[in-house]
Design brief:
Blueprint lengths: L1 H33 L3 E10 L4 E10 L2 E6 L9 E4 L4 E4 L1 E6 L29 E11 L3 H9 L5 E7 L19 H11 L4 E7 L6 H13 L3 E4 L9 H8 L5 E2 L22 H9 L2 E2 L10 H9 L23 H10 L4 H6 L3 H6 L16 E14 L5 E15 L2 E5 L12
Parallel strand pairs: 1-4, 1-5, 6-7, 7-8, 8-9, 9-10, 10-11, 11-12
Antiparallel strand pairs: 1-2, 2-3, 5-13, 13-14, 14-15
Helix pairs in contact: 3-4
């Protein structure tokens, strides 16, 4: 009898334990269903870092990605947005912009009218993070931070110009005495390591001295260097630049520029990609588009794409002298590559996870659970479109990428067709 009672008590405890577990699981499911601020429902997710390329739902809680999965239940989600037929991607990263806008009317890019305020030009293109490409140097970076970085809703990171005064003007950018690797590295390592992600060398008329000083600073700060290498007469060897002066991980911007009297091109006059270009990319040199107002030509880009030479990063070189010409915004530039034969998946890779990797920010460029809910919802439209390079010539295309919805840290910051809004009712 006593043995039976012991067995009964053990069985009773087992039943109670099972009921408790079932109750807790049910409670967790209820809590989980409640813990969704925004649910993006029915879209096709492209997340290159996490190798997702399929129909998935994306759940957001407290500004973070909380779940990416098929058919997430909508019960108790505070807001459900139907994104069926659209592509859901990480917020786009534009790795080459100029946003040091200011009122120095004698300046070019640094604190001048050629730079733009980021929020007016980012979200409408699905961009949530930009990298200011060397507008400021160590002498005036803090002004850029106060005027733009601290006030923008867009995440603004920066490359620090090797010239202390940044891009005030072409003459100032020739001053070798103002190219101080120690002070440049100090500004990065000691003061702003979370904001400054690299170094920029640009617009130098002389030999390789500017590049070498930028690389020296890059070594001291352990960050990559971006080179705008295009104002030498006669042109300097880009093969020497790639193989002797830059390191793997350093960046060559304005890849598809055509200005053979000032800079050697990647595609020769017979339309052939120079063999050392492939070798340089294999070595680890990063090729950035940097479209800009004068640095993207079909006669370079089309044969390069046809021969399998793709950029590592697709960027705009956004400023007032580029955004109203051949370069409209990042979606327009991505559309150009899609119409040259690049897959949508490759284009998204080169504007999300690839730039995040280049600037060594693995927390960006993906929809990983726990990461900031920076998201672009894109529409790939079909039709009859035209795309222009900086020389005013047109490439016809049948596909055009357009940002329908943009979220920055879980907040809706752009909604082209009000897909997140309730329908107005006059009653």
């Amino acid at each position: 009898m006593e043995k039976q009672m012991i067995l009964f008590m053990q069985f009773y405890k087992y039943i109670i334990r099972c009921i408790f577990i079932i109750f807790m699981l049910a409670a967790c499911n209820i809590l989980h269903a409640q813990e969704i601020d925004i649910l993006l429902k029915g879209g096709h997710v492209i997340d290159p870092k996490n190798k997702i390329d399929s129909k998935m739902d994306v759940a957001i809680l407290q500004g973070k990605i909380s779940q990416v999965a098929p058919d997430i239940r909508i019960e108790n989600a505070r807001k459900v947005i139907d994104v069926s037929g659209l592509y859901v991607t990480p917020g786009l990263i534009d790795m080459h912009v100029h946003v040091f806008m200011g009122n120095d009317l004698d300046a070019y890019i640094a604190n001048g009218p050629t730079s733009v305020a980021p929020d007016g030009f980012t979200f409408r293109a699905g961009v949530t993070t930009v990298v200011d490409a060397g507008s400021s140097g160590w002498r005036n970076f803090r002004q850029l931070k106060v005027q733009t970085i601290d006030k923008a809703q867009t995440r603004v990171l920066a490359l620090l110009n090797i010239t202390g005064t940044g891009m005030v003007g072409r003459f100032e950018e020739q001053d070798l005495t103002d190219m101080n690797p120690v002070m440049t590295a100090y500004m990065i390592n000691k003061l702003f390591p979370d904001i400054i992600v690299g170094i920029k060398a640009s617009h130098y008329w002389g030999d390789f001295s500017q590049v070498d000083r930028a690389v020296e600073a890059g070594k001291l700060a352990n960050v990559p260097v971006m080179v705008d290498f295009g104002e030498h007469d006669p042109p300097l060897s880009i093969e020497s630049l790639f193989m002797k002066h830059l390191r793997p991980g350093d960046i060559f911007t304005h890849t598809y520029s055509y200005g053979p009297t000032q800079r050697e091109t990647v595609v020769d006059e017979n339309g052939k990609v120079k063999p050392f270009i492939f070798a340089a990319q294999k070595r680890g040199i990063i090729f950035d588009v940097g479209h800009g107002g004068g640095a993207f030509s079909w006669r370079q880009a089309v044969p390069a794409m046809q021969q399998g030479f793709k950029p590592d990063v697709i960027s705009t070189d956004l400023h007032t002298q580029s955004m109203n010409g051949g370069m409209k915004d990042l979606c327009n530039v991505l559309s150009k590559f899609i119409n040259m034969g690049m897959s949508l998946q490759d284009a998204i890779l080169r504007s999300t996870w690839s730039p995040a990797s280049v600037i060594r920010r693995p927390d960006l460029g993906s929809l990983s659970v726990g990461s900031d809910a920076d998201i672009a919802v894109l529409n790939l439209r079909k039709g009859d479109f035209g795309f222009m390079d900086i020389r005013g010539t047109k490439l016809k295309g049948t596909q055009k990428l357009e940002a329908e919805l943009t979220l920055r840290e879980g907040k809706i910051v752009w909604d082209l067709n009000a897909i997140s809004a309730p329908v107005w009712d006059a009653k």
